[in-house]
Amino acid sequence: MTGKEYARRLVRPGSEIYSRIVEALEKLGGKAMEANLLEELRKRGFDLDIHELRQMLMKLEIRDKVRVLSLDEERRLIELLARRKPSEEG
Hints:
Largest sheet: 3 strands, antiparallel
Order of helices and strands: HHEHHEE
Helix content: 40-55%
CATH architecture: Orthogonal Bundle
Number of domains: 1
């Protein structure tokens, strides 16, 4: 299964990719440029393109987990709004 097929299977909230995005943002200090977040996810084995990442970020933004700020046409800053509680970390 290719990374894109895998990502398409992980489209519902609560799926693994969404928690991995939150974990990557936590590792990056709660804020990251979109390109840095994409690179971090690729290091973790998720072969996503920028459009797939943006769809997932939009869903996380709707659920008040992240905020996406457009700095210009190409660059976006992603901020983590909801950090996991210590009891949820395992």
